[in-house]
Amino acid sequence: xxxxxxxxxxIATSSAVGVIADAINPxxxxxxxxxxxxxxxxxxRSLDHIxxxxxxxxxxxxxxxxKTTSLEEPTTCGVFLLTDADKLxxxxxxxxxxxxxxxxxxxxxxxxxxxxxxxxxxxxxxKPMSQRFAEFCGIRKNKQIFVSAQNAAxxxxxxxxxxxxxxxxxxxxxxxxxxxxxxxxxxxVYTLRNYGKHxxxxxxxxYPAHVKVLSLGVGLSFSxxxxxxxxETGTLHKCDKRGLEDFVQLGGGDGLDLAQLSVVDSICxxxxxxxxxxxxxxxxxxxxxxxxxxxxxxxxxxAVAQADIMEDMNRASLVCxx
Length: 322
Hints:
- By secondary structure, the chain is mainly beta.
- The protein has helices at residues 6-12, 14-24, 30-41; strands spanning 47-50, 55-58, 62-67, 77-82, 87-98, 105-109, 112-114, 117-119, 133-136, 138-140, 145-147, 152-158, 165-174, 181-182, 187-193, 201-205, 209-218, 234-236, 247-253, 262-271, 278-282, 285-291, 299-306, 318-319.
- Strands 14, 15, 16, 17, 18, 19, 20, 21, 22, 23 and 24 form an eleven-stranded mixed β-sheet that branches. Strands 1, 3, 5, 10, 11 and 13 form a six-stranded mixed β-sheet that branches.
- Helix 1 packs across helix 2 and helix 2 (14-24) packs across helix 3.
């Protein structure tokens, strides 16, 4: 694991504390949410980008540059990259001027990290944590091209000397089989599918949300799905409590860590037209997580829309922080 994390950023700079805290605080998610929405509305075209803020959310391809002009105590900062649900993020560091002896360092992380918690979680990412980090320093080009496994990636850096810096190029690549998705907008329809593999897939927002299940096909009475053998079972509830290995968890929490996930319901079954029930999750993080044993070709389609803490309190399925 990298020798510095955004936890150091939280300790080192008060301005960063505000931005990251907004991302996981159920009553103050607007800052990062607005940044994400604003970046989503900008044209996805190749541009030059100057990194100015210690915590930056970016959703554009292009060339990113940073050079320090400060003599203040160096802090750990991050560029949080985010793109469409069906894309991956490719990063190439074409210039690095971060002397190792001075404490300079830059890293790539496959996913996002907030307060020492990770998206996707350790349980849901296809690679072990040791293979999701890459860090380096010195004066050089890095020939390796890094590609995320989902639509989110993070560049962390510490620049201890004035006039030093780095640059990197970001490109978005098509992902034909998205599994883990960090939601960029505030309302849309998403599908999670495991393609018959023993993998867990998750859909995560950094804001309170309404979640409506539009279609469900998770776990069947047959060992494998076969054409013509799908049977409408309706939606079964509390599937994890029934001892079933394939199910969808609907819930939320105040962070990205699955240990903090409060589950409203875990559903399974075959239902092409579920009822209109909407789960309203009033938490800083809303999660739809599909757990798959590999025995079935599971899929779930959900509509997600931003919720309002004050207006939706009376119909909330889950309220965090109380």
